[in-house]
Design goal:
The protein is mostly helical. It is built from 24 helices and three strands. Strands 2-1-3 form a three-stranded antiparallel beta sheet, with no helix packed on it.
Length: 572
């Protein structure tokens, strides 16, 4: 009789929120009637067969209805949130495998994709100019425009620059390849971030990983500049989607005690990817072979993802797919020899529209877009504009990659004490180091020290802001918000070629501007709330009333054989 009462209420109200309100308001009165009716005998409801059939039609599926009823009748005090569930399960072997593979999609492959440009499309390729007036005279230079009265021969004819003839008046086309890649990156981060919030993390990660592999494979078959540019733009889109969705899925699979320490270790894969591409370029001169090796590594990662990847249980819960969420929790718990959670709370889903309609979320999003723009601009200015260290591209890339490693290990210890304070400290130190690198030095060997310190601090700030951004938004909009922030960061890389033109006015002017912007970014961080002691927000209500994370690891009984007929999830 109670179930039929709920059916009637649902048939009378189309809006889910109104249904919940009516059920909560009338449930107490219904309980009182139950006691009276037990004594009087059976109760006949005035509901005809046709009306009952209409109620049980396709509009209200039985499975969805039972989940609604269970959620309403469930005592909120007994609610088990995802952070608590993952905390009880611990960091299982399955989560470790998924984190390792996703970290390659998040850091290793995107680093290779971004930095392969430095070696396959050098802006200033070295070559020999043979004079037409004096055939016996040759000049070795990295400026093809000086060879107006001679024939230019590349030292390495197997680069994209040499193959497509991007010298002289066509030299601007080299930088346009990188600009196109990061423009596609900005579009892909926003587009697929929103799609992932709607369709799920698992499907988008698998799809974009395969798409990245096929687009990179297509670039090997390009024999004209414009074809290669188009492929490069779409490759940037898929690369961004793979990177953003991999990161969000990793964070949503971590418990509260793992997020701080594992996030720092995951970022180590980025400089490793840079060092890998430097190593390949040192021994291989042909650009198609270098890209072919990258394709092979991407293919291996796609295979690994297909074998170990699972959907985010947090996303499944907010999308009301409790049975699937229970299966995921059971799979994680079994791999760690622990019992799965006995009850899974139903969440109210939100979408990307909430980012603009919710005042608190909008303020956070605006502050974070400023922070991302500042940090990413400084990050790539120091990476791609590090010619003040030496004229050797491989040496500069190696130094800047090695400097990143200790930054991630230091933030490993600092980030657990607070995201906001650690990020502000890194950004202020980076500001000081950038200003210091612009000072006149009697001994120029001091300038690389300041540049290295600046890269160290910027890398630490980037590590913190990745985790900080993820913890500031609820599950329903997390991927979309992260994608918007990442896209604004990549706007800095799109503008990077124009930004570096400031060096024509003053060689150190780009570094000076980066230092000033870093100061603005630090003030933006101060406006954000601390998230270190709180659970990862699931719904919009957790934004204004965040739940404290457990201060000690939660315990869960070991997995033991169950009695015959006993359910794994009695709460469901």
């Amino acid at each position: 009789r109670r179930v039929l009462f709920f059916l009637v209420i649902m048939a009378q109200h189309d809006d889910e929120t109104e249904v919940i309100k009516v059920l909560l308001s009338e449930e107490d009165g219904l309980d009182e009637k139950d006691e009276t009716e037990e004594n009087e005998g059976s109760l006949e409801l005035d509901i005809g067969d046709d009306e009952l059939q209409k109620i049980l039609g396709e509009e209200h599926g039985l499975e969805s209805l039972l989940e609604d009823i269970r959620a309403v009748m469930e005592d909120e005090d007994d609610e088990i949130v995802s952070d608590e569930s993952l905390g009880r399960i611990g960091f299982s072997s399955l989560q470790k495998q998924i984190t390792f593979v996703l970290s390659l999609s998040f850091g290793f492959i995107p680093a290779m994709s971004a930095f392969v440009f430095l070696f396959t499309s050098p802006l200033q390729p070295f070559g020999m100019c043979k004079s037409l007036t004096s055939p016996n005279t040759t000049i070795t230079t990295n400026d093809s425009q000086l060879c107006q009265n001679g024939t230019w021969t590349f030292n390495n004819p197997h680069t994209i620059t040499a193959e497509f003839g991007l010298t002289g008046e066509n030299e601007w086309m080299i930088g346009f390849l990188n600009t196109g890649f990061f423009a596609g990156y900005a579009v892909g981060a926003i587009l697929f971030g929103v799609i992932s919030d709607a369709l799920g993390r698992y499907d988008i990660v698998i799809f974009t990983s395969l798409l990245t592999f096929f687009l990179n494979l297509m670039s090997l078959l390009c024999f004209s500049y414009w074809t290669y540019l188009i492929v490069r733009i779409f490759y940037g889109m898929s690369n961004a989607a793979m990177m953003v969705c991999s990161w969000v899925l990793m964070v949503e699979l971590w418990g509260p005690s793992e997020r701080a320490r594992i996030s720092s270790l995951v970022h180590v894969t980025y400089p490793i990817g840079v060092l890998a591409i430097v190593l390949f370029a040192s021994f291989i001169q042909y650009w198609r072979v270098i890209v072919g090796i990258e394709c092979f590594l991407q293919f291996i990662i796609c295979i690994l993802l297909s074998r170990v990847l699972i959907e985010s249980p947090r996303w499944l819960i907010v999308k009301r797919r409790l049975t699937d969420a229970a299966t995921v929790f059971r799979k994680i718990a079994t791999s760690n020899n622990k019992q799965p959670p006995q009850k899974i709370a139903l969440r109210t889903s939100s979408n990307v529209v909430a980012l603009c309609g919710h005042g608190v979320l909008l303020k956070r999003l605006i502050a974070l877009t400023i922070i991302w723009f500042v940090i990413i601009l400084a990050f790539y200015t120091l990476n791609f504009g590090s010619d003040q260290i030496s004229d050797n591209v491989s040496q500069n890339a190696t130094i800047m990659a090695v400097v990143e490693l200790p930054a991630y290990f230091i933030s490993y210890f600092l980030i657990r004490y607070g995201r906001r304070g650690t990020c502000v400290a890194f950004m202020l130190l980076a500001c000081g180091a950038l200003f210091g690198s612009t000072m006149p030095f009697k001994n120029e060997s001091a300038r690389p020290v300041f540049l290295g310190l600046a890269k160290f601090c910027v890398s630490g700030a980037l590590n913190v802001v990745h985790l900080f951004t993820t913890e500031l938004f609820p599950t329903g909009v997390r991927n979309g918000a992260f994608g918007v922030c990442a896209a604004f960061g990549r706007i800095g890389t799109v503008l990077y070629p124009l930004f570096m033109d400031l060096a024509q006015l003053e060689k150190t002017l780009p570094l000076n501007v980066c230092g000033q912007l870093m100061l603005v970014g630090a003030f933006a961080v101060v406006t954000l709330p601390e998230t270190a002691k709180y659970c990862l927000p699931e719904i919009l209500e957790h934004i204004t009333a965040p739940k404290l994370a457990p201060t000690t690891p939660l315990k869960s009984p070991s997995l033991v054989p169950r009695k015959a007929g006993e359910l794994d999830f009695p709460g469901l």
